[in-house]
Amino acid sequence: MKISSQQVKELRDRTGAGILACKKALQETEGEIEPAIDILRAEGAAKAAKRESREAREGIIRLRIDDGGKRAALLELNCETDFVARTEDFVRLAEELSDLLLERGEEALRADEIQDRIADLAGNIGEKISLGRTVRWDKEGWIGGYLHHNGRAAALVELSENLPEPAGELAMQVVAANPPYLDEADVDGAEKERELEIFRQQVRDKPPAIQDKIIAGKWRKRLTELCLVDSPFLRDDKISVARYLERQQSPSGKPVEIRGFVRLKLGES
Which CATH number fits domain 55-138: 3.30.450.20, 3.30.479.20, 3.40.50.1970, 3.40.50.300? Predict the structure, then answer.
């Protein structure tokens, strides 16, 4: 049976499959569109099983914050190549899943219909596609965020005051610097002791009377690398993040505090 170009186009528009695959499916179904769709979906499922052994290291990250600044979401959608990560269908799926995560939470992403959508796109594109890490925040403070222009890294920061611009600046700093801790109180005790022991070894030849002072200075310097509040502010490295916050005029007149942060970078665990 001769298959028209219009039939092939209609099937491609509805499935995203290649021209040859559409033509073959239509020949098998004697031009019937719906059975041809079933064939392509079945073939996509078979190919998906082979794709499971491949690694999905590329993809994009998406960020959402509600209008009130009290709820936010981060989502990572993975694929195998950067080319696919930039396609309209892949980006659209990531956007829609991010909206769903913000509105209904992580449980909604585990629904069968969502898993089917991911599998269908994987079948159409011919690459493994998987949902990576997800974060949904519901906070009493105010949330700011930053998504890097390449879509490969993002962060959320919760402040004690409603200051969207400073929150966004600090989220950018989290993306760039990737501090492991918020402040000294958060530093793991074992890690702190390891650092101090290194410093003790470094000053063992110094006069005992000044060793503790040198060690304390080294620890303060190390905190600028470990803790967000102690690190140099990204836009003015002559001041710390803590000093930057002190300069902000809050709506309540109270000191501005960072209550927490989270960062996602593509491919990191």
Answer: 3.30.479.20
Cα separation, 96 vs 153, whole angstroms: 18
pLDDT in tens, 162-189: 999 999 999 999 999 999 999 999 999 9
What number of residues does the chain have? 269
- For 187-231, write each residue's pLDDT tens digit: 999 999 999 999 999 999 999 999 999 999 999 999 999 999 999
The C-alpha atoms of residue 64 and residue 87 are separated, in whole angstroms, by: 20
CATH classification for the domain delimited by 5-51, as one of 1.10.8.10, 2.60.40.180, 3.40.50.1220, 3.55.40.10: 1.10.8.10
Contact of 40 with 25, CB cutoff 8 Å:
yes
Residue pair 238/244 in contact by the 8 Å Cβ criterion: no
Domain boundaries, the chain: 5-51, 55-138, 188-226
**Stated pTM of the model:** 0.78
Residue 49 has pLDDT above 80, yes or no: no
